[in-house]
C-alpha cells in the first residue's frame, strides 16, 4: 500500500487529499494576531545569542569579549557538517560570552554571546547573488550553511544538510499548514512575502530537482492561499493545496501523509520515501540568504494572547530577550493571576521560566494568555479508558495503554506500545476528559528510558572492558604456565643426566650425609635470604647457585615475589633432595658448601648426621613458629594487594626496587615455607641415613 | 518576573469525566420515562434506593481510602452505576435486595478493584447477576405493563410493596402480577422460554397468551417501547460523541445475524431476530451497558469484536441457557476477555509496515 508517484500526482491534480487518523479541532484563535501587518520590532539594547539554535553541534566561536561586530557578522563558524553558525543581529560590542538561560523546556543555561547594540545597526558587507543558477550546488549549499539557516518550523534541522540530499526527491513539500492555534507568523509571512517564499522554493527546486513541488496550506488561511496562488501562476510546477484544518496537520509526518498518502517508515526519514519538507519561513530565509546575501538574523514572531495589548506579528532580531518583545507588544500584567509565557503554541509550546530568554531561530510564537484563557493547573482524575485519546492520536497509538504503563514505570511494556513513536502533539491530552497530562507522562517515560539505555550502554562497555582484560589475563597465565612447563621439562632433563651417571656409581652413605647437609644449608640460606631486607638481591644469589631455577621473573610484583622466592627455595630444596637421593653432588652445588655452616661439613658419621638433622629440624620448627606469628595477623592483607598486570609487565620483577617493599606477610610466608622445606629435607636425610645404617 | 510553569498542551476540551457521566444519565431519561409510563412508579423508587446506597457506599469507601470524597463523587460514576442497576431490576424488588446489589456494585466490584477506571467488570451488571443468582425468584418477578395490571398500583402501593412486600391493600407480588385476564404475567422472553421447554413451537407461542390479543400486543409493545426509548437515548450519545458506534453497532448486528441464522435453521424453536432485539435488554445493553468505557475494549477493532461477541453470547444463552435474558452474563463474559482482545487488536502505529511486509 505505497502510493506511487503517478497516483499521488493524479490525486493531487483532482484535488483529492489523503488524511491522517485522529487529530483534533481546537479553536484556532488566529484572528487575534493575524489582522495586522508584520511590524518591525525596535532594537533591544542588549542581545543574547545562543551559540546553538538548531539540532546538531555548536559552531566554533569567532569573537571574543570586547570585539566590535557588524550586523550580520558571523559569531561562530561551521566546522562540522551538523553545525550552523550564528550571526550578530545588529552592530555592537560583544560584552560577554557566558552561560545564559535559553529557550529550552527545562530552562537550561547554554553558551550565549551577549551583544550590546550600538544603535547604528550597520550591515557587514553582504554578497548578494542575482542569479543563483550561475552558482553550482556546492557553492549554494555553502552559502546556505554560512547564512546560518536551520528549519524554522520547530525542529531546527540544519537546512544545508536537507538541501544537499543526494536521494531522488519526488515530492518537495512546503509546509504552510501552521496547524497550532494562535500562531500566525507563517500566515502573515505568506500573505506579505509570497514572492520571497516562492523564490526560496525555486532555489530549493534547483538544488533538489524534485519531480513535484506541493505547497500545503490549511484551509483556515484563505488570504495566505490567495497570496501564494497569485505567485504560482508563473510557476505552474508548484501545486498549491488547501488542506483540511485539523491539528496536527502541520506535523511533518502528518502533512506527508495528507499530501502523498505515504508514511515515513519507523526510524526512517522522509527522504526514504522520496519526500522532503521545508517550512515557509525557511524558504523565505533561503531567499534572503541567496538573493540578498543576508544571514539569518531575524524572524517573524507572533506575540498573542489576551494578556498583550497589541497582539500581532513582529519582525524580531534573533537574540532579542522575550521581555523586550513583551513590553513592545504591551504586556498586561494585571490580566494574569500568575505570570505565564508560552513559547510556541498552546498545544506543543512550553512555558518559559524566565522572560530573559532570547528569541531563537525556531521561536515562532509567544503566547501570553490571560487567566482562564487556557486550561490552568491540573485536575487529574482517574483514567476511565474512554479511549478518546486513541481516537485523537495521529500516530494511531494507544495513549491509554502508554499512560497506564508509563505511570506504572513499566517502560518495556510502554515501548511495546511504541512509546517512541509518540510525536508529543498533545492531541490526546487535549481531549482527555479526566484531564490527565498524558504527554507529560510520555516525556518522563521517554527520558527515563533514554537514561536507562545510556546506563546500559555504559555498563555494557564496562563489561566488555572487563572481559577483554580477563581474556588477556588468562592468556598471559597460559603463556606463563607454558613457560613454566618448559622450564620444568628442561630441569627434569638436566636432573636425569646426572641420575644416569649415578646409576653405576657406588652408593656412598657419606655422600648422602654431605648431600643432606647441603640441602639443609641451602634451605637455611633460602630462609635467610627471604628474611633479609632488600633481599631480592640475596634471593638472587641463592637462585644463582642453581642454574636452572624456575624463571619466575614475570610473576607480578609485590607479594607474588615472596611466593617466587619461596618457590625457588622449594625448587632448590627439591633438587637437593633429588641429588641426595641419587647420592650424587652435582658440581655446581658443591661450590656452596664452603659458606655453609659447620654441621654441614661434618664427617661421615651417622650419629652426627642424626644430630645435625635434629638441629635442622629444631631450627626449622622455630622458623616456622616465627613465620606463623608474623603472618597470622596479616595474612589477609596479602589478598587484595594484587596489582594490575600492566604494571607488573613493565616492572621487571626481580630487579625492581619495590621488591624491598615486600610486606611482612609475604616474608613470613616465605620463611615458613623455607622452614618447612628444610624440615622435610632434614627428615628425609635422617630417614635415609637410618635406612642405610 | 517569576513565571509559572506547566506542561503542554495548555489547551483542553471542556468535556470532563463528570460531564460524560451526566450526559449518559440524561440519555437514559427517555427510557426511564417509558418504564415509568408502562410499568409504574417502581423504577423511580428503586432508583432512589440505589442512589442513596451508592453515594453512601462510595463516600464511605473513599473516606476509608483517604481519597477526596466530594471530588470523586463529582465524577458521577456512582450515580450512573446506581441508575443502571435500578432500571435493570424488577421495579418491585424488595428494597434490601436493591441495597445489597448496589453496595456490591460499588464496594466490591468497583472500589475494591481500585475505584473508577480500575474495575474489570461492569459494576451494575455484576450486581445484577449477584442478585439474580442469590434471589432468582424475586429477580424474575416482573410486573405486567400498567395497562394489563388487574390492580392498579399507585405510588403508595409501590412503596409499600417494595418496603413491606405487600401493597397498601395487603396484596403480595404474585397477586399484583396477575393480569386482567387472570394469567400470571411473565416477560415475553420468559413466556417464550417456558413455552419452548414445554415443546410448543415458537410460532404457536407468538399467537397465544401474551401475544394473542390486543392485550398481548400491548404487553409486547410495552417492553419493546422501553427498549426503543433507550435506543433513542443511545443514538443521542452517539451524536454527542460520548460513545462510539462500534460496540452498539456490532452488538446489535451480531444479535440479528446470530438469531437470523438460527431462525432460518428452525423457525419453530428459534426466535426471530426482531423478537430478540425488541425484548429484554438488548438495546439498553447495547447503548448503556456494553459501552461502559472502563470495562469495555478500548481499540476500535477490539470494540467491534467485543460488541459482536456480546451479541453472540446473548443469543446463545437466551436460547440454550437457563435464564430468559442474557445481557448481563454476556457482558461479564466479554469483560473478562477485554485484555486479550485489546492486546490482539492493537492498531498499526504510524510508520510501521502493514502485516508482514
Automatic annotation (TrEMBL), chain A:
What cofactor does its activity depend on? [4Fe-4S] cluster
- Keyword line: 4Fe-4S, Cell inner membrane, Cell membrane, Electron transport, Iron, Iron-sulfur, Membrane, Metal-binding, Repeat, Translocase, Transport
How is this protein positioned relative to the membrane? Peripheral membrane protein
Q: Which GO terms describe its cellular component?
A: plasma membrane
Please state where this protein is localized: Cell inner membrane
* Residue numbers spanned by region Disordered: 473-510, 529-693
In this chain, [4Fe-4S] cluster 1 is annotated as bound at 383, 386, 389, 432
Question: Which EC number(s) does the record attach to this protein?
Answer: 7.-.-.-
Please give the InterPro entries that the UniProt record associates with this protein: 4Fe4S_Fe-S-bd (IPR017896), 4Fe4S_Fe_S_CS (IPR017900), Ion_transpt_RnfC/RsxC (IPR010208), Nuo51_FMN-bd (IPR011538), Nuo51_FMN-bd_sf (IPR037225), RnfC_N (IPR026902), Soluble_ligand-bd (IPR019554)
Q: Which domain of life is it from?
A: Bacteria
Annotated cofactor note:
Binds 2 [4Fe-4S] clusters per subunit.
Function statement? Part of a membrane-bound complex that couples electron transfer with translocation of ions across the membrane.
PANTHER family, from UniProt? ION-TRANSLOCATING OXIDOREDUCTASE COMPLEX SUBUNIT C
Q: Which family does it belong to?
A: Belongs to the 4Fe4S bacterial-type ferredoxin family. RnfC subfamily.
The entry's protein name is Ion-translocating oxidoreductase complex subunit C
- Give the species: Alteromonas confluentis
From TrEMBL, chain B:
The EC number of this protein is 7.-.-.-
The cofactor required is: FMN
Query: What protein name is recorded for this chain?
Result: Ion-translocating oxidoreductase complex subunit D
Family to which this protein belongs: Belongs to the NqrB/RnfD family.
- Keyword terms of this UniProt record: Cell inner membrane, Cell membrane, Electron transport, Flavoprotein, FMN, Membrane, Phosphoprotein, Translocase, Transmembrane, Transmembrane helix, Transport
HAMAP family attached to this UniProt entry: RsxD_RnfD
Job of this protein: Part of a membrane-bound complex that couples electron transfer with translocation of ions across the membrane.
Q: How does it sit in the membrane?
A: Multi-pass membrane protein
Tell me the subunit arrangement: The complex is composed of six subunits: RnfA, RnfB, RnfC, RnfD, RnfE and RnfG.
Q: From which source organism is this entry?
A: Alteromonas confluentis
Q: Does the keyword Cell inner membrane feature in the UniProt annotation?
A: yes
Transmembrane stretches in the record are 20-38, 44-64, 73-89, 95-113, 125-143, 220-238, 245-265, 271-290, 302-320, 326-344
Q: Identify residues that carry FMN phosphoryl threonine.
A: 187
Q: Which GO terms describe its biological process?
A: electron transport chain; transmembrane transport
**Cellular localization per UniProt:** Cell inner membrane
Q: Name one GO cellular component term.
A: plasma membrane
Amino acid at each position: 500500500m505505497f502510493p506511487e508517484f503517478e497516483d499521488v500526482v493524479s490525486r493531487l491534480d483532482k484535488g483529492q487529499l489523503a488524511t491522517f487518523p485522529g487529530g483534533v479541532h481546537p479553536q484556532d484563535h488566529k484572528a487575534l494576531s493575524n489582522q495586522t501587518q508584520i511590524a518591525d520590532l525596535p532594537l533591544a539594547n542588549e542581545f543574547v545569542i545562543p551559540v546553538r539554535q538548531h539540532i546538531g553541534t555548536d559552531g566554533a566561536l569567532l569573537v571574543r569579549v570586547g570585539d566590535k561586530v557588524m550586523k550580520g557578522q558571523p559569531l561562530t563558524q561551521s566546522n562540522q557538517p551538523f553545525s550552523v553558525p550564528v550571526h550578530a543581529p545588529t552592530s555592537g560590542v560583544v560584552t560577554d560570552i557566558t552561560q545564559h538561560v535559553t529557550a529550552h523546556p527545562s530552562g537550561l543555561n547554554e553558551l550565549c554571546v551577549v551583544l550590546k547594540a550600538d544603535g547604528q545597526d550597520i550591515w557587514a558587507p553582504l554578497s548578494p547573488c542575482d542569479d543563483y543558477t550561475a552558482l553550482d550546488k556546492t557553492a549554494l549549499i555553502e552559502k546556505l550553511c554560512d547564512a546560518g539557516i536551520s528549519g524554522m518550523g520547530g525542529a531546527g534541522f540544519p537546512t544545508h544538510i536537507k538541501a544537499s540530499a543526494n536521494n531522488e526527491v519526488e515530492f518537495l513539500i512546503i509546509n504552510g499548514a501552521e496547524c497550532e492555534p494562535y500562531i500566525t507568523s507563517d500566515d502573515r509571512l505568506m500573505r506579505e512575502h509570497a514572492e520571497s517564499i516562492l523564490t526560496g522554493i525555486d532555489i530549493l527546486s534547483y538544488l533538489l530537482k524534485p519531480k513535484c513541488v506541493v505547497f500545503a496550506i490549511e484551509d483556515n488561511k484563505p488570504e495566505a492561499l490567495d497570496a501564494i496562488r497569485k505567485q504560482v501562476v508563473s510557476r505552474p510546477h508548484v501545486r498549491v493545496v488547501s488542506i483540511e484544518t485539523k491539528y496536527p496537520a502541520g506535523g511533518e509526518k502528518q502533512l506527508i501523509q495528507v499530501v502523498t498518502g505515504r508514511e515515513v517508515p519507523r526510524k526512517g526519514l522522509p527522504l526514504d520515501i522520496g519526500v522532503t519538507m521545508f517550512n515557509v519561513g525557511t524558504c523565505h530565509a533561503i531567499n534572503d540568504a541567496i538573493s540578498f546575501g543576508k544571514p539569518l538574523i531575524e524572524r517573524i514572531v507572533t506575540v498573542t494572547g489576551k494578556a498583550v495589548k497589541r497582539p500581532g506579528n513582529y519582525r524580531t532580531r534573533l537574540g532579542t530577550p522575550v521581555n523586550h518583545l513583551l513590553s513592545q507588544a504591551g504586556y498586561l500584567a494585571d490580566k494574569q493571576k500568575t505570570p505565564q509565557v508560552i513559547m510556541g503554541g498552546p498545544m506543543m509550546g512550553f512555558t518559559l521560566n524566565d522572560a530573559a530568554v532570547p528569541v531563537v531561530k525556531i521561536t515562532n510564537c509567544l503566547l501570553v494568555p490571560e487567566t482562564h484563557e487556557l486550561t490552568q493547573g491540573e485536575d487529574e482524575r482517574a483514567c476511565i479508558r474512554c479511549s478518546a485519546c486513541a481516537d485523537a492520536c495521529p500516530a494511531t497509538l494507544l495513549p491509554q495503554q502508554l499512560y497506564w504503563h508509563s505511570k506504572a514505570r513499566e517502560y518495556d511494556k510502554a515501548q511495546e506500545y511504541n512509546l517512541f513513536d509518540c510525536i508529543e502533539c498533545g492531541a490526546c491530552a487535549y481531549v482527555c476528559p479526566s484531564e490527565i497530562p498524558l504527554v507529560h507522562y510520555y516525556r518522563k517515560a521517554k527520558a527515563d528510558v533514554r537514561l536507562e539505555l545510556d546506563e546500559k550502554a555504559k555498563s555494557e562497555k564496562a563489561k566488555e572492558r572487563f572481559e577483554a582484560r580477563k581474556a588477556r589475563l588468562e592468556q598471559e597465565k597460559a603463556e606463563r604456565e607454558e613457560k613454566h612447563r618448559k622450564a620444568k621439562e628442561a630441569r627434569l632433563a638436566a636432573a636425569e643426566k646426572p641420575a644416569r651417571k649415578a646409576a653405576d656409581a657406588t652408593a656412598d652413605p657419606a655422600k648422602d650425609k654431605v648431600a643432606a647437609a647441603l640441602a639443609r644449608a641451602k634451605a637455611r640460606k633460602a630462609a635467610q635470604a627471604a628474611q633479609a631486607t632488600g633481599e631480592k638481591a640475596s634471593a638472587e644469589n641463592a637462585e644463582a647457585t642453581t642454574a636452572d631455577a624456575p624463571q619466575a621473573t614475570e610473576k607480578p610484583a609485590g607479594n607474588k615475589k615472596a611466593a617466587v622466592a619461596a618457590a625457588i627455595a622449594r625448587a632448590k630444596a627439591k633438587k637437593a633432595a633429588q641429588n641426595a637421593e641419587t647420592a650424587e653432588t652435582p658440581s655446581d652445588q658443591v661450590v656452596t658448601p664452603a659458606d655453609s655452616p659447620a654441621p654441614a661439613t661434618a664427617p661421615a658419621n651417622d650419629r652426627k648426621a642424626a644430630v645435625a638433622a635434629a638441629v635442622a629440624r629444631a631450627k626449622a620448627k622455630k622458623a616456622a613458629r616465627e613465620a606463623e606469628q608474623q603472618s597470622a595477623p596479616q595474612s589477609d592483607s596479602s589478598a587484595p594487594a594484587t596489582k594490575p598486570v600492566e604494571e607488573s609487565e613493565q616492572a621487571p620483577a626481580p630487579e625492581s626496587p619495590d621488591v624491598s617493599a615486600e610486606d611482612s606477610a609475604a616474608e613470613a610466608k616465605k620463611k615458613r615455607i623455607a622452614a618447612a622445606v628444610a624440615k622435610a629435607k632434614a627428615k628425609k636425610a635422617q630417614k635415609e641415613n637410618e635406612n642405610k645404617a | 518576573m517569576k513565571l509559572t510553569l506547566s506542561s503542554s498542551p495548555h489547551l483542553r476540551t471542556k468535556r470532563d469525566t463528570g460531564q460524560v457521566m451526566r450526559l449518559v444519565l440524561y440519555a437514559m431519561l427517555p427510557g426511564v420515562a417509558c418504564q415509568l409510563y408502562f410499568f409504574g412508579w417502581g423504577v423511580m423508587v428503586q432508583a432512589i434506593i440505589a442512589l442513596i446506597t451508592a453515594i453512601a457506599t462510595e463516600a464511605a469507601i473513599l473516606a476509608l481510602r483517604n481519597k477526596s470524597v466530594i471530588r470523586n463523587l463529582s465524577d458521577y460514576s456512582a450515580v450512573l452505576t446506581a441508575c443502571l442497576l435500578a432500571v435493570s431490576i424488577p421495579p418491585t424488588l424488595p428494597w434490601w435486595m436493591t441495597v445489597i446489589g448496589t453496595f456490591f456494585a460499588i464496594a466490591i466490584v468497583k472500589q475494591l478493584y481500585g475505584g473508577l477506571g480500575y474495575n474489570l467488570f461492569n459494576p451494575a451488571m455484576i450486581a445484577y447477576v449477584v442478585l439474580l443468582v442469590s434471589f432468582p425468584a424475586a429477580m424474575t418477578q416482573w410486573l405486567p405493563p400498567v395497562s394489563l395490571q388487574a390492580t392498579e398500583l399507585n405510588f403508595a402501593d409501590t412503596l409499600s410493596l417494595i418496603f413491606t412486600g405487600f401493597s397498601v391493600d395487603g396484596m403480595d407480588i404474585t397477586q399484583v402480577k396477575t393480569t386482567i385476564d387472570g394469567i400470571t404475567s411473565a416477560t415475553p422472553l420468559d413466556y417464550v422460554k417456558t413455552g419452548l421447554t414445554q415443546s410448543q413451537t415458537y410460532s404457536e407461542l407468538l399467537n397465544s397468551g401474551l401475544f394473542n390479543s390486543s392485550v398481548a400486543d400491548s404487553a409486547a409493545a410495552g417492553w419493546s417501547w422501553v427498549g426503543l426509548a433507550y435506543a433513542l437515548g443511545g443514538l443521542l450519545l452517539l451524536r454527542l460523541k460520548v460513545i462510539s458506534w462500534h460496540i452498539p453497532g456490532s452488538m446489535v448486528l451480531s444479535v440479528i445475524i446470530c438469531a437470523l441464522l438460527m431462525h432460518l435453521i428452525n423457525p419453530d424453536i428459534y426466535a426471530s431476530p426482531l423478537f430478540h432485539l425488541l425484548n429484554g435488554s438488548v438495546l439498553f445493553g447495547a447503548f448503556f451497558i456494553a459501552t461502559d468505557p472502563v470495562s469495555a475494549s478500548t481499540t476500535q477493532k477490539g470494540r467491534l469484536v467485543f460488541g459482536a461477541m456480546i451479541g453472540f453470547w446473548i443469543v446463545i444463552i437466551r436460547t440454550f441457557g437457563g435464564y430468559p435474558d442474557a445481557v448481563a452474563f454476556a457482558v461479564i463474559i466479554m469483560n473478562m476477555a477485554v485484555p486479550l482482545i485489546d492486546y490482539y487488536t492493537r492498531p498499526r502505529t504510524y510508520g510501521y509496515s502493514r502485516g508482514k511486509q
